[in-house]
Design goal:
Chains A, B: Residues 30-147 form the Cyclic nucleotide-binding domain. Chains A, B: GO terms for molecular function: DNA binding; DNA-binding transcription factor activity. Chains A, B: Pfam families: cNMP_binding, HTH_Crp_2. 2 copies of one chain form a homodimer. The first copy, chain A, has helices at 15-23, 36-45, 123-132, 134-160, 163-177, 194-201, 205-217, 234-240, and strands spanning 47-51, 56-58, 66-72, 74-80, 86-93, 97-98, 109-112, 116-122, 187-189, 222-224, 228-230. By secondary structure, the first copy, chain A, is α+β, with helices and mostly antiparallel strands. Chain A has a 4-stranded antiparallel beta sheet with strand order 1-8-3-6. In chain A, helix 5 (163-177) packs across helix 7. The A-B interface holds A 77, 79, 81-83, 85-87, 89-90, 100, 102-103, 106, 108, 130-132, 134, 137-138, 140-142, 144-149, 151-156, 158-161, 199, 201-202, 242, 244 and B 77, 79, 81-83, 85-87, 89-90, 100, 102-103, 106, 108, 130-132, 134, 137-138, 140-142, 144-149, 151-156, 158-161, 199, 201-202, 242, 244. Chain A binds a DNA duplex through residues 162-163, 193-195, 203-207, 209-210, 212-213, 225-226.
DNA sequence: GGGCTTTTTTGATCTCGATCAAGGCAGCCG
DNA sequence: CGGCTGCCTTGATCGAGATCAAAAAAGCCC
């Protein structure tokens, strides 16, 4: 499924760039250094969109004609083999950028795992503005570099860590990314089902469940209603994940 | 160990940018769109360097002050846990770019696996030129996007493929990347030892060896002198790697 | 609440790849 | 040539996580 292209008429024009800025609040916003006329283009071509859980945002192998910034919610990026085996290759939280301008042939599918609010742009707009505004290009590049670094960290997890370490690593990752401003959350709701966690960790749901139980029994975490995780001591969780701090 | 900083006096000035261009020949070279004065800066600040196998180019956690383009040879990027478990998170062939300008905190170590010729620049130079030349910034960004795509492909391999598929996948990867101009090589020398292959695939050397034997006995590959691989039918190798073409 | 589905947990067993242990083979140097 | 060293291969056994199976808990709709 493609990202919708129509600008959302219900939003006032002034709201949209604020959303974009919010998306990249950590660094002052993607639109931060654009000229007034460039900002006006963004306003005209940008659409807000709300996506329900389990709805595909970008399909595997689509010619991707749009990009988006996540305003709220969690998006999973996954790859699938012909026989159905699946691997989640990235989790994106607000205010991450979705899509690969400047590169066409990267097949992966993006799917909302919670309710997601997006700020959608045409790919061509981003590419044009990036060519005009070096700082925008640089900032998108830095975001890509961070994703590359995260992907490589996860390769270490997938290739060399035990099931228990992987689960602890996942919990640590969610704790640190769920609130993008503050440090690691002490208490949070898991955005993913056990099946999705398994697909992210290269494990089965049974193994994920058993390792969560194990961490719970060892007192590393507390679990309420299967979804809510409480971490009394983040250091202890990191040790269980073999994260050297 | 840091990359050497001294420009190599033995190289004529005219040779160096040619080397850079050669590094990025597929797209016309990193230096392709620079002005004459920018090119002169590159000439002044660039050093050629030859690196022996198993020599570290950039250490894990170094404050990385240099970047490099690979002119010849193969470089492995790896991450290690405190207890010694290791994962190779990327293999770079000529004419790949090494280093992460614009981003400081990504800990990984780069090590030559064959004799490697590099073209070394100060990080600051690249960052300055990229700010001035939007096309250079864009091209570096595209290279990073490709690496991200490759890393995510590898996550699928690490998370969901069997030992045999992983080994076949690795052979296919080397076949396609060892000669950057042509298509997949039908015959090539493995640049990595069994131990390095194991670290790349998240397996042990024994399992790697057994799966190579198995692929050999099934006629998917022929092996000469343990290092030389002959692939009679690349399609068959891809099928064994579960690569959907 | 009661019946239904879906998700998660727990238990029993199996299997692929790890581990432990030799043995083979090539390169190197005397 | 023979002994040595460092990879690589092969064999035997073990174990972490997969698979198969079922029970328990939560959500959902009436």
């Amino acid at each position: 499924m493609q990202i919708m292209t129509q600008p959302n008429q219900k939003n006032s024009h002034s709201e949209i760039p604020i959303a974009c800025v919010a998306c990249h609040a950590r660094e002052g916003g993607v639109c931060g250094t654009l000229s007034p006329s460039q900002l006006a283009q963004v306003v005209r071509k940008t659409a807000r969109r709300r996506v329900q859980p389990q709805i595909e945002i970008i399909g595997q192998g689509d010619g991707i004609e749009h990009c988006a910034a996540i305003v709220r919610g969690v998006v999973k990026l996954s790859k699938m083999l012909a026989d159905g085996r699946q691997q989640i290759v990235g989790l994106q939280f607000a205010p991450d950028f979705l899509g690969t301008p400047f590169l066409r042939e990267c097949s992966l599918s993006a799917e909302a795992v919670t309710n997601v609010d997006l700020c959608v742009f045409p790919r061509a707009l981003i590419e044009r503005l990036a060519a005009e505004a070096p700082d925008l290009q640089r900032r998108l590049h830095v975001e890509t570099l961070k994703k590359l670094c995260a992907a490589r960290d996860w390769m270490l997890t997938l290739g060399r860590k035990t099931a228990k370490e992987r689960v602890a690593n996942f919990l640590y990752l969610v704790a640190t990314r769920i609130n993008f401003e503050d440090g690691p959350a002490r208490e949070f709701d898991l955005p993913l089902s056990r099946a999705d966690i398994a697909d992210y960790l290269g494990l089965t749901i049974e193994t994920v469940s058993r390792q969560i139980t194990r961490l719970r029994k060892e007192g590393v975490i507390r679990v309420e209603n299967r979804r809510r995780i409480i971490v009394p001591d983040i250091r202890r969780l990191m040790k269980n994940a073999s994260i050297d701090s």
